[in-house]
Amino acid sequence: MSSTAMHQTEKATASPIRAIHTPLTKLLDVKVPVLLAPMSTGGGGALAAQVTKYGGFAFIPAGDDTVENLKKEVQAFEDIVKPSPATQVPVGIGFLVWYLDAKHKELLIAALDLKVKAVLLAFGDHMDRWINFVRDYDQANGHSTIIFVVVHSGEQAAAAAELGADVVVAQGIEAGGHGASYAPPLMVQLSVVQKAIPDNGPLIVAAGGIMTGSHIAALLTAGAHGCILGTRFLVAQESYYTPSQRNAMVAAKINTATKRTLAFDYMVGSLGWPEGIDGRALKNLTTQEFDAGEPVEEIRAKYEVAEREGDASRIATWAGLGVVLLTRTNEPVKDIMHELTEECFTRLKAVCMLLDN
Ligand SMILES: Cc1cc2nc3c(=O)[nH]c(=O)nc-3n(C[C@H](O)[C@H](O)[C@H](O)COP(=O)(O)O)c2cc1C
């Protein structure tokens, strides 16, 4: 980086994050409509705390974790953010609905008992059951939890609106990690979802391939109320990705570096995803051998060795199509949040200048 560029970056990160207002920032009581995605294997309470500290809203993944670990991650968040004990914990927890269906509702109960501000429900055929569960639990306990529902089609968005979700997450095919193989690109998905829900329906958050402030500005201009980013934060200092995974992401420079696959789910035995759901990750030896039809047990044996080393040549490095834009491997969240919000702010201002008055 040139000394002028470095000076400008230092100047930008020293200044406070500038507010960007949308109905979502009002609902969540945050400064900017930038959200950290729940990312199993990717991040926990410490990463979420940094995003919160710099004006965004963050999700911690419950995934297929234990109640004990979930509590540990929320505690790690609280240790940094230090919310007032009288208020809700200003964080969200992301749930895999098929995992809740498989009798793991204790995770959801633990989150609600911790009084987290929001829950995100994704990937399941019984969304109604869990939205109603949260509403009933809240009513019995005098809480009010904001419910996000991840959708991949107009029908799913309309159903989520009907069920009273507060926010729908329109996830496009670009997204890293699990998503729908049938989802259209995000810009199309956003319009599909907008058309499917009524004017006074849930707020809309965009997800999938969002990497820059310009992307966020474009999506806000197109009517999204906020953006969820996953891959962009995987190179943050507080991410759980190993050095090998980070290096593999920064080295990925072509659009075919990732693929949608269930190969890694076969490796770790997480095979309860609803029809049409798979995950986008960097291609590596595991996907290569899986696609070539090598016996799963043999690939798994090599996978387990690689897992101990955190070796990205075999383990899952979930990443979205935007991975090609990553250039650095170990960034402070502070810098990422400044870069995203400053660029978004500048773009939005520039767009306003296109008008006569
Ligand atoms: C490493 C990784 C793990 C993920 N784990 C989850 C998860 O546990 N629950 C979930 O709802 N979504 C999960 N996702 C999907 C994200 O919520 C989000 O939709 C996605 O990251 C957005 O796309 P992007 O990565 O291109 O920004 C994961 C994504 C990644 C990259």
Short recap of the structure:
This protein is of the alpha/beta class and 357 residues long.
What would you say this structure looks like, in words?
- By secondary structure, the chain is α/β, with parallel strands linked by helices.
- It folds into 2 domains: 13-241 and 324-352, TIM Barrel (Alpha-Beta Barrel); 243-321, no CATH class.
- The chain contains 15 helices and 11 strands.
- It has helices at residues 3-14, 23-28, 45-53, 67-81, 97-101, 105-113, 127-141, 154-162, 186-196, 213-221, 243-251, 263-268, 285-291, 296-309, 333-352; strands at 34-36, 57-61, 89-96, 116-122, 146-151, 167-171, 177-180, 203-207, 226-229, 258-261, 277-282.
- It has an 8-stranded parallel β-barrel with strand order 1-2-3-4-5-6-8-9, surrounded by 8 helices.
- Strand 5 (146-151), helix 8 and strand 6 (167-171) form a beta-alpha-beta unit.
- The radius of gyration is 20 Å and the shape is globular.
- 47% of the residues are buried.
- Bound molecules: flavin mononucleotide.
- Residues 37-42, 61, 63, 94, 96, 120, 122, 150, 171, 174-178, 207-210, 228-231, 318-320, 322 line the site of flavin mononucleotide (FMN).
Notable traits:
FMN; eight-stranded parallel barrel; 357 residues; single chain; binds flavin mononucleotide; globular; alpha/beta; TIM Barrel
Topology overview:
Layout: H1 3-14, H2 23-28, E1 34-36, H3 45-53, E2 57-61, H4 67-81, E3 89-96, H5 97-101, H6 105-113, E4 116-122, H7 127-141, E5 146-151, H8 154-162, E6 167-171, E7 177-180, H9 186-196, E8 203-207, H10 213-221, E9 226-229, H11 243-251, E10 258-261, H12 263-268, E11 277-282, H13 285-291, H14 296-309, H15 333-352
Helix pairs in contact: 3-4, 8-9, 10-15
